[in-house]
C-alpha cells in the first residue's frame, strides 16, 4: 500500500513545519536549565557561553557537508539522518554531561543534527513546491523554528518541575525521532535538480559571485548573532530580573521566554508580508536598525517592573524576528537553482558561525562589566547583540 504522501503545497508546508518544530524539542534544553547548571557546575559567564556557543559551533562545522549535500542527493534522506543525530546528542547531554567540556561536546552534536534538519528541511520543501514567486511557504517554515524554540522552552519548564534535569532532557530527545517518522511517512522521495552534475562538497565560488547573495549572507550572520545570543541568555536574564523585582511574577523564566519567542513568530510572518509590499531591502534595513537600538532598551529593562521588562524584551525579540523570513526568502530566490544547497550551506555557515561566537561574547562581556549580578553588566552584554545589525543597516542605507 502506498504511503499517504503530502502532495499539495499547503499539506507539505504544514507537515514540514510540524516536523521542524518536533525536531527542536531539545534545542532549548541547555538554556532552560542554565541557571541550575551554572550553580551545579560552578560556571563563569564565559564558560556558560562556551557551552551555549558549542551548539552553533557544531552546526557551523556540519552545515557545509549536510546542507551542501542536498545539491547531490535528496534532502529528505539528509533530514532523516540528522534527526537521529539530534536525538543522540540530546540524550547524550542528559546522560553524560557533567562539566564545561562534556556539556559543550554534546551541545555540538545537537548543533550538527540541527544543521541537517533546518536548511535541508527547507530544501525538502522548496524542491517540491513550484517556484511561482510566492514566499509564504518559506515564511511559514522559517517561523516554525521559533515555534520549536518556544515548544522546547515550555517542555523543559514543564518537565523540569516534575523530574530531575537529566531525566527531563532525556525525554526531550523523543521529538526528533517523531519528526523523522513524520517525514519518512509523509514526504515522497525526489531527486534534486542537476544532482548528477553537483559535487558532494558545496562550491561557494558560483554562489559568492552574486552580490545580492553576499549581502544576504552577511545580513543573516549579524541577524543570527543577535538571535542566538539572545536565545542562549534569555532565560538567565529573566531569572536575574525576577530576582531584583519586588513583585511576584506569574510566569516562570522558561514560560516567559517561551511566550516571548512564540510572539516573535507573527512578527516574522508579518515582516515577510510587509517586505513583499514595501520591498525586501527597505524592510530588512529598517528592522536591522530597530533591533540594533532596542537591544540597549531590553538590556536596561532588568531594573523595570517585571511585566514592563517582559514587554520590552518581547518588543526587542519582535524586531529581531521581523526580518528573519525576508532574509531567507531572499536567499532562496537569489541563489541559482543548481547551487541552492551550496547557497543555503554558506548562508547557514555565516549565520550559525556568528551564533557560535555571540553567546561567548555575551558571557565574557557580562564577566568583564560586573558579573551576572549587575544590572549594568546585563545592559552592556545586550549591547553586543545588536551592534552588527545596526552597522549592517547603516551601511546598507549608504548603498544604492
Outline the secondary-structure elements.
Layout: H1 9-23, H2 29-32, H3 34-40, H4 45-66, H5 75-96, H6 100-115, H7 118-126, H8 136-162, H9 165-171, H10 174-186, H11 204-208, H12 211-243, H13 253-278, H14 280-300, H15 306-321, H16 324-334, H17 340-368, H18 375-398
Helix pairs in contact: 1-7, 1-8, 1-10, 4-6, 4-17, 5-6, 5-7, 5-9, 5-10, 7-8, 8-9, 8-13, 8-16, 12-13, 12-15, 12-16, 12-17, 12-18, 13-14, 13-15, 13-16, 14-15, 14-18, 17-18
Task: Describe what this molecule looks like in 3D.
The protein contains 18 helices and no strands. With 400 residues, the chain is mainly α. The chain has one domain: Growth Hormone, Chain: A. Helix 5 (75-96) runs antiparallel to helix 7 (118-126) and helix 13 (253-278) runs parallel beside helix 15 (306-321). It is globular.
Amino acid at each position: 500500500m502506498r504511503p499517504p504522501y503530502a502532495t499539495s503545497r499547503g499539506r507539505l508546508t504544514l507537515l514540514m513545519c510540524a516536523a521542524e518544530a518536533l525536531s527542536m524539542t531539545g534545542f532549548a534544553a541547555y538554556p532552560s536549565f542554565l541557571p541550575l547548571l551554572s550553580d551545579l557546575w560552578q560556571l563563569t559567564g564565559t564558560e556558560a557561553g562556551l557551552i551555549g556557543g558549542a551548539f552553533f559551533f557544531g552546526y557551523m562545522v556540519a552545515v557545509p557537508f549536510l546542507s551542501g549535500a542536498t545539491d547531490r542527493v535528496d534532502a529528505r534522506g539528509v533530514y532523516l539522518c540528522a534527526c537521529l543525530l539530534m536525538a543522540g546528542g540530546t540524550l547524550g547531554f542528559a546522560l553524560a554531561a557533567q562539566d564545561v567540556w562534556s556539556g559543550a561536546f554534546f551541545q555540538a552534536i545537537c548543533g550538527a543534527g540541527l544543521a541537517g534538519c533546518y536548511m535541508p528541511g527547507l530544501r525538502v520543501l522548496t524542491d517540491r513546491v513550484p517556484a511561482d514567486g510566492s514566499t509564504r511557504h518559506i515564511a511559514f517554515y522559517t517561523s516554525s523554528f521559533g515555534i520549536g524554540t518556544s515548544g522546547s522552552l515550555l517542555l523543559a519548564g514543564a518537565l523540569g518541575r516534575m523530574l530531575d534535569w537529566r531525566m527531563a532532557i532525556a525525554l526531550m530527545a523523543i521529538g526528533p525521532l517523531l519528526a523523522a517518522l513524520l517525514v519518512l511517512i509523509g514526504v515522497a522521495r525526489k531527486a534534486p535538480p542537476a544532482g548528477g552534475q553537483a559535487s558532494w562538497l558545496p562550491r561557494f565560488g558560483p554562489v559568492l559571485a552574486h552580490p545580492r547573495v553576499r549581502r544576504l549572507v552577511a545580513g543573516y550572520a549579524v541577524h543570527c548573532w543577535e538571535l542566538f545570543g539572545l536565545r542562549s541568555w534569555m532565560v538567565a536574564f529573566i531569572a536575574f530580573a525576577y530576582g531584583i523585582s519586588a513583585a511576584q511574577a506569574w510566569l516562570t523564566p522558561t514560560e516567559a521566554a517561551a511566550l516571548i519567542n512564540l510572539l516573535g513568530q507573527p512578527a516574522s510572518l508579518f515582516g515577510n508580508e510587509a517586505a513583499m509590499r514595501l520591498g525586501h531591502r527597505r524592510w530588512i534595513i529598517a528592522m536591522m536598525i530597530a533591533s540594533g537600538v532596542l537591544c540597549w532598551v531590553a538590556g536596561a529593562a532588568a531594573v523595570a517592573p517585571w511585566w514592563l521588562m517582559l514587554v520590552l524584551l518581547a518588543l526587542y525579540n519582535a524586531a529581531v524576528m521581523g526580518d528573519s523570513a525576508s532574509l531567507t526568502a531572499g536567499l532562496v530566490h537569489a541563489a541559482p537553482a543548481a547551487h541552492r544547497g551550496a547557497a543555503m550551506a554558506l548562508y547557514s555557515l555565516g549565520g550559525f558561525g556568528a551564533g557560535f561566537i555571540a553567546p561567548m561574547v555575551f558571557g565574557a562581556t557580562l564577566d568583564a562589566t560586573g558579573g551576572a549580578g549587575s544590572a549594568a553588566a546585563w545592559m552592556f552584554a545586550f549591547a553586543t547583540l545588536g551592534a552588527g545589525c545596526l552597522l549592517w543597516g547603516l551601511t546598507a542605507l549608504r548603498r544604492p
